[in-house]
């Protein structure tokens, strides 16, 4: 594996970086932890465009693990998380969304992009993002001021994401199926208390499905 990594194979570099960072190799075989070397291997993989390495490096820079003099760099950590998110890594999209929604001295608030990241992660099957997106659609979301946004309520969309998380969430993140079922119960109560509003969202959902079923036409 080390030879493959030294010869430039990004996946090998990623794996060795993971092992040295956690102290566990494949099948939980113990190895000597070496965060400094871990960061170097992850940097090699990152230079080749590997998204997972960017995600792992983000955590290391946030905590000052394996970095020069143990230095923490929240700004660099966020940049790496964003890089992994843009490259399509769902867990990075989820974390980047949370950071952008809250904002911080190192992260400019951008709630619209935050929701878009959550939506991308949710659509790819990441259960924590599915629950977050569903909650936003259940109550609606309005954030005023710089970096604010508005998300309209849509209980039918909320249910579609919660159904997916409740069915398969634990395959990715343990405990999310129970969390999704608890939010589904809240949605059931909301719809029962507001039947006319619930019917309106169901009509919208039917309209979306009808559009998807319409045959496409091409001009020759």
Largest sheet: 2 strands, antiparallel
Strand-pairing-aware structural class: mainly alpha
Order of helices and strands: HHHHHHHHEEHHH
Helix content: 55-70%
Question: What are the SSEs and their pairings?
Answer:
Blueprint: H1 2-6, H2 10-22, H3 35-47, H4 51-63, H5 74-86, H6 90-102, H7 111-123, H8 127-139, E1 141-143, E2 149-151, H9 155-168, H10 176-193, H11 195-213
Helix pairs in contact: 2-3, 3-4, 4-5, 5-6, 6-7, 7-8, 8-9, 8-10, 9-10, 10-11
Descriptive keywords:
220 residues, mainly alpha, 3% strand, elongated
Walkthrough of the structure:
The radius of gyration is 21 Å and the shape is elongated. Strands 1-2 form a two-stranded antiparallel sheet. Helix content is 67%, strand content 3%. The N and C termini lie far apart (54 Å). The mean pLDDT is 93. It has 220 residues and is mostly helical. It has 11 helices and 2 strands, in the order ααααααααββααα. A hairpin with a 5-residue loop joins β1 (141-143) and β2.
Outline:
This protein has 220 residues and is mainly alpha-helical. It has eleven helices and two strands; from the N terminus they run H-H-H-H-H-H-H-H-E-E-H-H-H.
